[in-house]
Known about the structure:
Elements: H1 13-20, H2 28-31, H3 34-37, H4 41-54, E1 62-63, H5 66-73, H6 77-89, E2 93-97, E3 108-111
Antiparallel strand pairs: 1-3, 2-3
Helix pairs in contact: 4-6, 5-6
Amino acid sequence: MARKKKGRGGQTDSVAYRKSEQFISVHKSLWECTAFRTLKPPAQILLLHFIFLAYPNRNGRIGMSHSKAAQIAQVNKATAGKYLDELMVRGFLEMRNHEMWKERKAREYRITLCYCEGRAPTEEFRNWKQGLNFFGRDKKFAATN
């Protein structure tokens, strides 16, 4: 078995690397939530990326275009848009500002499970149930139409 290299202070390289990196925590209540567990893996990746971008104090101003979401989830733009819609329908995201094509600005989102502008999280995803959609069974979320 190969030995790991020792870094500064007698630590292995992997330990020294982890101490200098930023991390996010996923609460057990989110992990066990039905709305999160039934998401497809690319949608879960997008949500975790939103959580990563939300700190410090950026929640409510997180810009994400469909092409950027497609790059993160490694899918095409149309599929990435569907995953963003799914995150909004389930209550994980709320759209704060629509896109402005002439100014080249993407849509801005707020994550409902993080603090935003000093207000407590609304955690709307906890009320989601399988088969429940605010605007009919197969219709898109009204904010994206």
